[in-house]
Amino acid sequence: MEHNDVKKTVQDQFGRAASAYVESDTHAHGTDLALLVEWLAPAGTALALDIATGGGHVAKSLAPYVQSVFATDLTKSMLEAAREHITQEKLHNVQFVLADAESLPFLDQTFDIVTCRIAAHHFPNPNAFVEEVSRVLKPGGAFLFIDNIAPEEPHLASFLNEFERLRDNGHVRCLSLSEWTQLMESTGLHVEKQRVRKKPFEFRPWVRRMAQSEHQIEEVERFFVNATAEQRQYFDLTFANGQIASFRTDECMMLCKKAP
Length: 260
Hints:
Blueprint: H1 3-16, H2 18-23, H3 25-28, H4 32-40, E1 47-51, H5 57-62, E2 68-73, H6 76-88, E3 94-98, E4 111-117, H7 126-136, E5 137-149, H8 154-167, H9 177-186, E6 189-202, H10 203-210, H11 214-225, H12 229-234, E7 238-240, E8 243-258
Parallel strand pairs: 1-2, 1-4, 2-3, 4-5
Antiparallel strand pairs: 5-8, 6-8, 7-8
InterPro entries: Diverse_substrate_MTase, Methyltransf_11, SAM-dependent_MTases_sf
Protein name: Methyltransferase domain-containing protein
Family: Belongs to the methyltransferase superfamily.
């Protein structure tokens, strides 16, 4: 699929799912939201950028600790849902900008902090995204990155990306930890701290957030049921009455600093 077609699919998918992502327990209440503020330790004068803000959860978490946050997203209705959500919280230092993560509408060396959480697997060109992050960061600035990652083993990575694509037409690819590390370092972003954890999902809420039909849900479920013993073990698949109940994937949280 061409890059522009992928982005149009992402806009369509997230346009339909905007309210679901604002309310999603995984996105709204993850322990990583408090941890990212702790890792960043932002100064009150900091200017922050949250790329692919989704429901606005990172922007909302950062807003009390910085001077201003620019929350961007490719999908207008998603950005509108985030603005409504954040406005209800009486936070007035968040600006909302429609923007492509791979072509940001900001000048070089604008931000002290850049964040991107649980979104980059939808980006057609991860290298362009990381280059843009490095470009808009001030020297010495911090980039806090969170996303689902693929196992280093190719056959397990293929399994992960296939079930994500079956559920979500806008999914491009989860990269491995080594791939992300190489991308960061190649664009002048030094990895200072990282954490990899197993993130649990209940199958029904996860699949219904993006699937567009019962047929699509059944297709994803069949894929899980046909998993090999190795795949079942790695992704900690659990079943009830022959149906998938839950699973776990790897998630990476990474703090990078741009050279002074």
